[in-house]
Specification:
heterodimer, A: 242 residues, 40% helix, 25% strand, globular, B: 237 residues, flat
Chain lengths: 242, 237
């Protein structure tokens, strides 16, 4: 479904991704963890072309994302992205946030788009917030709307970029529950997160990144019980015993 | 002997009294039709220049925030050229200078000059507004498959407009006031009409006072209208 092959990415002289390769199968949930600055968010953002790449290739299904403007556009319609800072459109109410993509990108009728949006808002547990503006919502609610907005485009893959890192602790679980529901429904997901509980419970595979490379990847049982690398062990002990 | 000091005081008092008594605002009634024509001309030129200047400002801002070096350079040259030369010279240049090649009426020349002038400032106001929108908004819009143009039209500009509105209103008010300069190329606006009336009647105080009041009403009225608009747009904050 998604295939990154020998991807390189620099910011000036700083190498953020160094020869990274990763494959994600249909219906698979891959959780990417690692210290900050390890390149995990950048990795995620190369998949839908929010970051350009200097070398290698990113494939979604059978087309190369970075090959042309047209492919890039196609990739963005096949992938839904959820951001750390939610990034809801502040000038649109909740319903319009969710329908704006289907109406303007997929050229659906307003009626059809609203039908989809309303169903999704029920799914993320916010059916009563349709007419509310983002600034009146809690962080957890905003993030659930953001998930609905991405799902409204019927993506084949969902990309999550630290979706709970900007949330107050009591709101983290409401967002994780929605994500778990998606995983149960068989959505292909790539999740960058620090939520080890989520990784343990939901991931099919955990990928550990450090300093621009994928150091190791394994199913969660194996990954958390017998990490192979010293740096993985150090990271896990820091994050689990804090 | 008459006491010198006191007579002096009386004379000064007399002079003031005389001046006040001589003020005669009836001249305004007499020339009201001409003043109204001038007022409408000022309103007409201002509205046309505000519309054209805003279009040029949006175009200029899109140029200045564009990825293309050529467009950015064009935008920069436009803004710097206009901002660093006096408006009066721009008006004279467009009417008399370009007038050598093009047959521009005073009215067209003034609208062009005022539009170019305010467009440069509006460019900078809009550019700052676009810049102030968090890049996450753009990324989110791109991630659901919008084109750059859709992102600008549906996401960035509608949000920027709210932040732009107060400085933009200031620019429009400046434009209304600056439009008085076009009287130098014989556009029969409020200022030009006033100058003529003063020449005929010598009622400088009355006429200029009244003309100032008309400009005040136009400018202050506009700023009140914009304030109302701001309140309406504030609903999503």
């Amino acid at each position: 479904m998604i295939k990154l092959k020998n991807v390189y990415k620099n910011y000036g002289s700083l190498e953020v991704l160094k020869n990274v390769s990763l494959t994600v199968a249909q219906g698979e949930v891959v959780v990417v963890i690692g210290p900050s600055g390890s390149g995990k968010s950048t990795l995620l953002r190369t998949i839908n072309g929010l970051e350009t790449i200097e070398g290698g290739d990113v494939w979604i299904n059978d087309f190369s994302v970075h090959a042309s403007e047209e492919n890039l556009h196609k990739a963005r319609q096949l992938t839904g992205m959820v951001f750390q800072q939610f990034n809801l459109f502040n000038h649109k109410n909740v319903l319009d946030n969710v329908t704006i993509g289907p109406i303007n990108v997929q050229k659906k009728s307003r009626l059809e788009a609203e039908e989809i949006a309303k169903a999704l808002l029920v799914k993320v547990g916010l059916p009563e917030k349709e007419q509310v503006y983002p600034s009146k919502l809690s962080g957890g609610q905003q993030q659930r709307v953001a998930i609905a907005r991405a799902l409204a485009m019927h993506p084949e893959v969902m990309l999550f970029d630290e979706p709970t890192s900007a949330l107050d602790p009591e709101m983290i679980s409401e967002v994780l529950e929605v994500m778990k529901g998606l995983a149960r429904d068989g959505m292909t997901m790539v999740v960058v997160t620090h939520e080890m509980g989520f990784a343990h419970e939901v991931a099919d595979r955990v990928v550990f990144m450090d300093d621009g490379i994928i150091l190791e990847e394994a199913p969660p049982e194996e990954f958390f019980s017998q990490p192979k690398h010293e740096r993985t062990r150090m990271f896990l002990s820091r994050i689990l015993n804090h | 002997m008459v006491e010198y000091g006191s007579s002096q005081e009386i004379r000064v008092y007399d002079w003031r009294l005389l001046a006040v008594q001589q003020l005669d605002f009836s001249v305004l009634i007499e020339y009201l039709p001409a003043i109204m024509n001038g007022l409408f001309m000022t309103i007409k030129i201002s509205i046309m220049s505000i519309i054209l200047g805003s279009i040029m400002g949006v175009g200029g801002a899109l140029c200045r925030t564009s990825k293309s070096l050529l467009l950015r350079s064009i935008g920069n040259i436009y803004v710097e050229w206009i901002r660093n030369t006096p408006l009066l010279i721009q008006i004279l240049f467009i009417y008399f200078g370009l007038g050598v090649f093009l047959n521009l009426s005073p009215m067209v020349a003034s609208v062009l000059a005022l539009s170019f002038f305010s467009g440069a400032y509006i460019t900078e106001i809009i550019r700052a507004g676009i810049r102030s929108i968090h890049r996450g908004q753009r990324e989110a819009a791109l991630s659901i498959g919008m084109t750059e143009w859709q992102v600008m039209r549906l996401i960035i500009l509608p949000q920027a407009i709210k932040r732009i509105l107060p400085p933009l209103a200031g620019q429009f008010i400046t434009l209304i006031k600056d439009s008085s300069l076009v009287s130098v190329i014989a556009v029969t606006d409020l200022t030009y009409v006033a100058k003529n009336i003063v020449t005929i009647t010598f009622r400088a105080f009355e006429v200029w006072f009244a003309i100032a009041a008309f400009y005040f009403i136009l400018s202050f009225g506009l700023s009140l209208a914009v304030r109302k608009l701001e309140e309406r747009l504030a609903e999503s904050d």
